[in-house]
Specification:
The chain is an alpha/beta fold. Helices cover 42% and strands 22% of the residues. The chain starts with a helix and ends with a helix. Bound molecules: S-adenosylmethionine (SAM) and iron/sulfur cluster. Residues 25-26, 28, 68-69, 71, 102, 104, 127, 129, 165, 167, 196, 198-199, 201 line the site of S-adenosylmethionine.
């Protein structure tokens, strides 16, 4: 059964595109600036793009807001306050709205947490990445493990809800090392952890170093063992995976990210932000200019920074539904796929994948990827969508 909240969910994503330095593994839309950033000007541009989007799509009730980056914890709390007030000026906001801010765990940023709380943020997601200093150095991070744990403690004092991210499958990481690190992480994380396997992204310094053999990532067997121990330790401590890389106690899932994975509607605000908007029965896939200053000028000239504003046809919608929905432990309702695409999933392919143990189908007909299927999720989705 789909709850009322699921049906009516509407998220707003706001992208802050600046960082103090660029981490060598990261291909997110993040930029380093050595001159001061005119936050007031950016705040006005965010407000303008929110207003334009609200005019275009009309009334909605906002159920989640996510301030992501980049490093949103470099913003002054006042800038965050302006963004949240603007959202509330143009849309109704659910009394139980989830407002997450992504923060880097340095001591300077932690001093702003109380200000974010006062501005209306009620959840933080901290990029801890690793709990030992040698790994943090290898990842090019600017904080120590102690500093990160101190930031987690400050977050615990300021917010009812917080989460933190770790990157695993790092160079020289053994299963035992990861098991111990994970246990420490769980003792510090109240309700939610995002655990990402290190991905070597093209165009990053890590890509070149990896190609040159200067960085080694685990082979397939070790990567699988690291994945399996992640599931085992998290399950044992009540933090089961509700999405391929996200673990939470029941009820503590990130509502905003569920909007993406359940194929619901969200507005993307800021440089390089993506959105999915429903207008007159049609779904639009939007994305904005990525370069911060170019985005600013577009918004000041046109009221928005959109570069992509595509109508999705039924096939595209159905594929996206499959791609996103199968990441979730709750899986998908195949009838929704049929409704979107106009044709059912191929029963022969479903039968083969079930036989292989990659998917399961329950009595209500919900289709889920199994623990054995998650490490080969891309292949499972490609097979079902073919
Ligand atoms: C938008 S990013 C950054 C948030 C914040 N700026 C930070 O670094 O703490 C969100 C998360 O993606 C993960 N991430 C980024 N690049 C990755 C990569 N190449 N492989 C695995 N995880 C990655 C990190 O865990 C990071 O915290
Ligand atoms: S990982 Fe975070 S801090 Fe590092 S460059 Fe990416 S967005 Fe910025």
């Amino acid at each position: 059964m789909v709850s009322a909240r699921e049906k009516e969910a509407f998220g707003v994503y706001v992208h802050w595109p600046f960082c103090l330095s660029k981490c060598p593994y990261c291909d997110f839309n993040s930029h380093v600036r050595h001159a001061a950033i005119d936050e007031d000007r950016f705040a006005r541009a965010f407000a303008r793009e929110i207003e334009t989007t609200a005019r275009r799509i009309g009334a909605r009730e906002v159920t989640s807001i996510f301030l992501g980056g980049g490093t949103p914890s470099l913003m002054q709390p006042q800038t965050v306050g302006t963004i949240l007030e603007t959202i509330a000026k143009h849309w109704r906001v659910d009394s139980d709205v989830e407002v997450t801010l992504e923060a880097n765990p340095t001591s300077v940023e932690a001093t702003r947490f109380a200000g974010y709380r006062a501005a209306g943020v009620n959840r933080v997601s901290l990029g801890v990445q690793a709990l030992d200093d040698a790994s943090l150095k290898a990842l090019g991070r600017l904080h120590s493990a102690r500093e990160a744990l101190d930031a987690v403690a400050i977050a615990r004092g300021c917010f009812e809800r917080y989460s933190f991210d770790l990157i695993y499958a790092r160079q020289d990481q053994t299963v035992q090392m990861w098991r111990d690190e994970l246990k420490l992480a769980i003792s510090e994380a109240a309700e939610h952890l995002s655990l990402y396997q290190l991905t070597i992204e093209e165009g990053t310094p890590f890509f070149g170093l990896h190609a040159a053999g200067k960085i080694k990532t685990p082979d397939e067997a070790l990567a699988r063992a690291l994945y399996d121990v992640t599931q085992e330790v998290c399950d044992r401590h009540g933090l089961g995976a509700y999405e391929i890389s996200n673990h939470a106690r029941p009820g503590a899932e990130c509502r905003h990210n569920l909007v993406y994975w359940r194929g619901q509607e969200y507005a993307g605000i800021g440089p390089g932000a993506h959105g999915r908007l429903d207008i007159g029965g049609t779904r639009y896939a939007t994305s904005t200019e990525k370069r911060p200053e170019a985005w600013l000028m577009r918004v000041e000239a046109n009221g928005h920074g959109l570069l992509v504003d595509d109508r999705l046809n039924s096939e595209e919608r159905a594929d996206e539904f499959l791609l996103m929905g199968l990441r979730l432990a709750e899986g998908i309702d195949p009838r929704r796929y049929t409704a979107l695409s106009g044709r059912p999933l191929d029963p022969r392919r479903i039968a083969v994948l079930r036989e292989e143990g990659a998917i399961s189908v329950d009595e209500a007909g919900r289709l889920r990827v199994t623990q054995a299927g998650f490490p080969v999720l891309d292949a499972v989705v490609a097979d079902l969508a073919a």
